[in-house]
C-alpha cells in the first residue's frame, strides 16, 4: 500500500512538472514568498509584569518585632 501511494505521488509529480503552466505558477509563487518574507518581521512581545500580591510586598517586613516592648 505504501509503495502504491509513493508511485502514485511520483507519477502525479512528474505530470505536474511536465505542465508548463504549473511550473510558471510555481515560480511566481516562489517569488511572491520571497518578497513577503522580507516584509514581515515577527517581534516578540514582552510579557506584562504581574502585580505583586500582598504577601510579596510585605515579604521582607517583620511585624513581630516590638521596639518599645509595651504590649497593647
List the helices and strands and how they pair.
Blueprint: H1 2-18, H2 20-39, H3 54-57
Characterize the structure shown.
Helices cover 57% and strands 0% of the residues. The protein is elongated and about 95 Å long. It has helices spanning 2-18, 20-39, 54-57. The chain contains 3 helices and no strands. With 72 residues, the chain is an all-alpha fold. Residues 27-58 are annotated as: Disordered.
Amino- and carboxy-terminal Cα gap? 88 Å
SS element count, helices: 3
SSE-based structural type? mainly alpha
Provide the helix percentage.
55-70%
Q: Which parts are unreliable, with pLDDT below 50 for 5 consecutive residues or more?
A: none
Q: What summary fits the major beta sheet?
A: none
Order of helices and strands: HHH
- Approximately how much beta-strand content do the residues carry? under 5%
The global form is elongated
Number-wise, the strands total 0
Average predicted confidence as pLDDT: 85
The gyration radius over C-alpha positions equals 34 Å
Region (Disordered): 27-58
What structural keywords apply?
72 residues; mainly alpha
In short:
Residues 27-58 are annotated as: Disordered. By secondary structure, this protein is mostly helical.
Amino acid at each position: 500500500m505504501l509503495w502504491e501511494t509513493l508511485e502514485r505521488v511520483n507519477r502525479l509529480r512528474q505530470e505536474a512538472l511536465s505542465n508548463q503552466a504549473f511550473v510558471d505558477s510555481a515560480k511566481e509563487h516562489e517569488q511572491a514568498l520571497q518578497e513577503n518574507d522580507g516584509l514581515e518581521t515577527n517581534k516578540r512581545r514582552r510579557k506584562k509584569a504581574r502585580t505583586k500580591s500582598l504577601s510579596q510586598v510585605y515579604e521582607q517586613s517583620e511585624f513581630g518585632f516590638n521596639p518599645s516592648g509595651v504590649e497593647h
